Amino acid sequence: MAQESGTGGGFVRGLLDAVAGWPARLRPAGAPRQVRRVVTGDSPEGTSVVVSDGPPPRVASVPAWPGFSSTVVWATDAGMTAVPGADDPTPAMTSFVPGPGGTRYTVVVIPPDTGGLAPGATPDDLVGQMAEALPGLGDRMDAEHPGVHATDTVDYNVVVSGEVWLEVDDGVSTLLRAGDVAVVTGNRHTWHNRSKASAVLHTVVVGTPRT
Q1: Rounded distance, CA 56 to CA 131, Å?
Q2: Taking the model in full, what pTM does it have?
Q3: φ and ψ at 196, to 5 degrees?
């Protein structure tokens, strides 16, 4: 059973319309472009300044799943970050899943399902490599159904380019296209890309106690 979702709201649609007017070098085309991150901070005099401008240093990939990547843009947790402050927390981040009230902002590239696993790779390889590359998240994957997972978080998933299917336990798969938003509230789910091009999702994950 499948159903198609509506758009992700006026704000996101307006954002995507604006992106469509940017120079080509700033738009995904073919292979997803490298993420550019601009971070602000305070100068010694207390004025706001840009302290870094470039690609985030932490990018996770999985050799058994060619084309997949998860770029960590920023992270917050109690004691790890404060404002004002511009020290990059991502290299020292020990888990892709935040604690209560913490956040993770990632840019995730999901390749087409038709690409399959790398030559010679097995599902066990995929599960093990995801646990290593995505600590705290990869080790929560269902061993019998690689990719299916649930975390104590609320996840805001914005599809920026391409299309993906969100699959949940009741057997329903929902198609999401660029501009659509999926809010996952701690439930078991997985993603499928049944198209011929990679999909790019911007995901903000907020740690939330489970009741």
Answers
A1: 21
A2: 0.82
A3: -105, 0
